[in-house]
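Run log // design_07
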């Protein structure tokens, strides 16, 4: 009997407290929430209680709540957006989560090499999304950006385009509709593509790499950056059951950057 009690003690994290309230983790609706729900189930079997909190609030509002201690962690935004938030001075990026990939779509082209001379390429009009689209086009060899433009690239930084392609700026909500005639190719983020019935992995002619700068991040307060519970949470997030779920559920239309 004594030997069995020792085994039980070793299976429970030394820092765990049976009365400890679940850790509150804000998650964006959709894949971030779905994956974190699975992580919470797996973590519970290891004695780590998580309470995912779906939130449609602006990321800066969530980060403010995290900094104030009303949350324990957040999985709501990408690394580029997090880096631009003034609240990051009180927060830390703990791990990469999911990449919701931007991709290149066409209704009538079979491949990017079929783009006609002077073809029209629609990109988001919103500045942050436009930067992401320009880098994706650059990475696929469809245009050349000014050296050093990087994560601040703007249409004015385009030095040349392949075959004289013309960029057309449209609100993200109108990009999918532009494929019916206004554009030969459109660069669309995953939420707007899915709303139009387009799956990034299935329907695109080019897709963002999983380790994009826009990969999602798990954030915590700086004081918790080395907490044992956080190390356990990240280990569960990166476990084989979670890897299988992401692949089987999203078929590479949500990508794993770790």
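design_07 sequence
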């Amino acid at each position: 009997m004594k030997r069995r009690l020792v085994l039980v003690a070793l299976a429970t994290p030394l820092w765990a407290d049976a009365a400890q309230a679940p850790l509150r983790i804000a998650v964006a609706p959709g894949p971030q929430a779905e994956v974190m729900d699975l992580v919470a189930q797996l973590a519970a079997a290891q004695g780590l209680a998580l309470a995912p909190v779906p939130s449609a609030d602006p990321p800066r509002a969530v980060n403010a709540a995290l900094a104030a201690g009303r949350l324990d962690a957040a999985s709501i935004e990408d690394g580029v957006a997090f880096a631009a938030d003034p609240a990051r001075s009180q927060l830390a990026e703990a791990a990469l989560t999911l990449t919701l990939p931007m991709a290149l779509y066409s209704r009538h082209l079979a491949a990017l090499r079929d783009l006609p001379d002077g073809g029209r390429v629609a990109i988001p009009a919103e500045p942050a999304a436009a930067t992401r689209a320009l880098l994706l086009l650059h990475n696929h060899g469809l245009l050349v950006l000014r050296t050093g433009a990087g994560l601040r690239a703007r249409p004015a930084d385009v030095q040349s385009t392949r075959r004289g392609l013309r960029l057309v700026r449209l609100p993200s909500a109108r990009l999918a509709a532009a494929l019916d005639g206004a554009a030969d190719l459109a660069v669309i983020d995953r939420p707007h593509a899915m709303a139009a019935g387009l799956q990034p992995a299935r329907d695109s002619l080019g897709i963002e790499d999983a380790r994009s700068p826009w990969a999602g991040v798990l954030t915590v307060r700086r004081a918790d950056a080395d907490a044992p519970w956080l190390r356990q949470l990240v280990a569960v997030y990166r476990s084989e059951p979670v890897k299988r779920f992401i692949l089987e559920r999203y078929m590479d239309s949500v990508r794993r950057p770790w």
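The longest strand covers residues 73-78.
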